[in-house]
Design brief:
It is a single-pass membrane protein. The protein is an alpha+beta fold. It has helices at 2-17, 25-59, 110-113, and strands spanning 66-69, 74-80, 84-90, 93-98, 102-106.
Length: 114
């Protein structure tokens, strides 16, 4: 066991005498570029695509559409405003929600089957 400790001590001055070899700075830049490209294709691009689809869905809302809000409320659109949508959630019960709170547009007849 003692011979392992002496070997470790013997190598310490030898490593200090010469600097460890360093990689090429171009290789570092290439790896950084690959890392950025991976983040772009895995995280940034899909999120931007989803945001664009959501924006198009909100712009295409019309009276009579059946929707689900971000809070999980099901209802039918009765009025459309600039920033708000009036949603009929039961007979005689209407609420106003922000357009951005509309999460999904459902197929016609979904509320009756629910």
């Amino acid at each position: 066991m003692n011979f392992l400790i002496s070997d470790a001590l013997a190598e310490a001055p030898a490593a200090a005498a010469g600097a460890p070899p360093q990689g090429s700075p171009f290789m570092t830049l290439i790896m950084l570029g690959v890392l950025f490209a991976a983040f772009y294709f895995i995280l940034i691009r899909p999120q931007a695509k989803r945001a664009k689809e959501h924006k198009a869905m909100i712009a295409a809302l019309a009276k009579g559409d059946e929707i689900v809000t971000a809070g999980g409320v099901l209802g039918k659109v009765t009025e459309l405003g600039e920033g708000y949508v009036t949603v009929d959630i039961a007979k005689g019960v209407e609420i106003k929600v922000q357009r951005q709170a509309v999460q999904t547009v459902l197929p016609k007849g979904t509320i009756k089957s629910a």
